[in-house]
Every structure is written in C-alpha cells, then in structure tokens.
Amino acid sequence: MLYRRFGRTELKMPVFSCGGMRYQFKWQDIPQQQVPADKQANLETTIKRSVELGINHIETARGYGSSEMQLGQVLPKFPRDQIIVQTKVGPKADPQAFQADFEKSLKNLQLDYIDLLGIHGINTAELLDYSIRPGGCLDVVRKLQAQGKIRFVGFSTHGPTDIIIQTINTNQFDYVNLHWYYINQVNWQAIEAATRHDMGVFIISPSDKGGRLYDPPQKLVDLCAPLSPMVFNDLFCLSHSQVHTLSLGASKPSDFDEHLKTLDLLHKADEILPPILARWEQAAISTFGENWIKTWRVGLPKHEKTPGNINIRTVLWLRNLALAYDMHEYAKTRYNLLGNGSHWFPGNKAEGVENLDLRECLRNSPHAERIPDLLCETHKLLEGAKVKRLSQS
C-alpha cells in the first residue's frame, strides 16, 4: 500500500480507504441479532482483507444504517493504533441532538475514541451555520476532543463549490470529504483551497458516483485501454498530489482487487494518462464540437434562480456523458434522482421545460437559444422511474 500525509492531521493515510456504505446489512438501525450470520461474516472478512492490504482507514457514518453497529463487532479486535476510524454525523440545529448522535456512533463502534469525525453533509449555508455558529455542532466537537473522544474533525459535502470553499475558509476543519474525479472536476478549486489550509482531502465514491465504473459501457472500456475505467479514474485522481485518499465502497473482499492495480502505475502516470485523456476529450469533441465542450458551462444559472428549479448544469452534464461516452445507465440513475435528492442532489429534472420561459436565467449563456430544446431532448432521453438515495431505500 502507498500512504500520503493527510494534511495537518499528520496521519499516514492509505491512498485507498475502506468506505462503509455498501457492506452493511440494512439501511436502518436494527439489533445485532437481526443481522444474518453470513452478512456479518462477509463484513468481517471484508474488513480483515482491507487491513491485510494496508487499507487501514475504515470509514462509515451514523446514516449508514447497521454499518456502525456491525463494524463494532470487528474493529475492537484490531490493535487500536493500527487502524484509522472515521464516522460522520449530520449537523443539527440542536447541538445536543448532534452530540446524542455522536455518542450513539461511539457506542455502536465499541471504541473509546474516533480518529476522524466528519460533520456529514454541509451542503447548504444553513447547515454550515448549524456547524460553526457559537454553541453549534463544532463547539460540541471541541468538548468531545477535550474529552479524548475525537482526534480530528472534518466535513463531508455534496454541496456546491462555493459552499465547500466557504466552509474550508473557516479554517475550523482538519479535512474534507468531497466529490472529484475525471467526469466531474468542478470542485478542483475547493481542493486547492483545502491544500492552502493544509487539510486532508478524501474523495467520495470515485467508482460509483464517478461513473458506475464497476459496470462500464464498452465505449469507456475502449477509451481507457489498456487500463480498466476504474483504474484509469483512480490513477487520474491520485496523479494529483493534493488528493490523499479515495474511498472504495467495498461490498465484499474481492472488491479491492481491481483498484490495487493502480499502485504500480502511479510512478509513471505522466506517461500513461495523456493518451487516454486525449481519447476522452476527442470523443466529446467528435460528438458535440469543440465550441460546446469548451463553453457549455458558461453563464448557466444556479437551480435556485431557474424557473421550475431545474438543475440545468446537471441535466446538460448528464446529457454530455450519455451521448459522448454511452454512459446511459449512470446518466439515467442520476437524472431520476433529481427532485428526490434534497440538498444531497438538489434541483429538478427538465420535466415540463417547454412550458417555462428560461430567457432571463439564460441571458449569460452563449447557448441560450439552444438550451431549452436540449433540456427537453434530455428529459425524453433519460426520463425513467424516480430514484431514491441509498439511505432512503
């Protein structure tokens, strides 16, 4: 395994982390005795395999159902100084409710302390305020740190880049969990801000939210050859030294295997990546033309400023992926989460867009005349059954 300094925490962080939202039995809290023996055995075997590989950062959350409780049956069996444990707790208006959630996490995990506590889902200005205002959640964290129950505090986010940077610039957090990978690089400025503050940088879900790369369309396989799409994306992310670790959402012990192929390639990423990156870019230009690829994002409004609360940027991004790279399944899943994802995946689909006047909100876009038709076309292309977030399943 390779390790990187995790910002000012000074932790020796493996470049891969074992994410804990896919091996648990239920998305709801249940008693341990309701977990089937084979499900618990799979989780324990997965964690043991992870640690054997040197992936000693085990990451979960209060919102991941039975994950914490099931981990509590195995984590105490390891020497405590040989594992790095992260859990995450959502911010609350009532800081006492936040503390109660943390205490439940600590009890579930059967540990004396947590190495990394993430305030989970600082996606809006209101949730940031819950976290940093006097007497808020961070003040609770500081007391828990003084009691030795938490070592370092960070935050996770699915929010817009400006909210992420605003949170980073408070200089109150030791690390950040955020989305950033080849198909979605909009948070690079946030990573640069985190680097300036010497924060650890943890990438969320690079193989799932990064494109369902465990089940890629043939076009991605061809574009990424001789690498698999999963290894290509790992290599792309880790070729940036500002990125410290990628979360691998393992559901079984063998889920680490493909990712491990990345380790021997990192020293020659500068040779391997350029021809693959050129093929990706050319595929997009061949589909849409260079002007669209370079300017489609320009002047797009935020969903809050758009009639119907349509998330225009996300809809057009998903259209690009579906048409340029045959990423139809990924695009359909993400598209049909719009309207159901709350602040975790905000805004609405383009349903009924033909009845809306978008001229004012698109006045700064060089493609203002085309976009309403493109939104209508995308809705027909990707519309399907509503999709819920995993934690709502």
UniProtKB/TrEMBL annotation:
One annotated GO molecular function: oxidoreductase activity
Matches recorded under CDD domains: AKR_Fe-S_oxidoreductase
Gene3D superfamilies noted in UniProt: NADP-dependent oxidoreductase domain
InterPro entries documented for this protein: AKR, AKR2_Oxidoreductase, NAD(P)_OxRdtase_dom_sf, NADP_OxRdtase_dom
Superkingdom of the organism of origin: Bacteria
Domain spans labelled NADP-dependent oxidoreductase: 19-163
Protein name: Aldo/keto reductase
Species this protein is from: Mastigocoleus testarum BC008
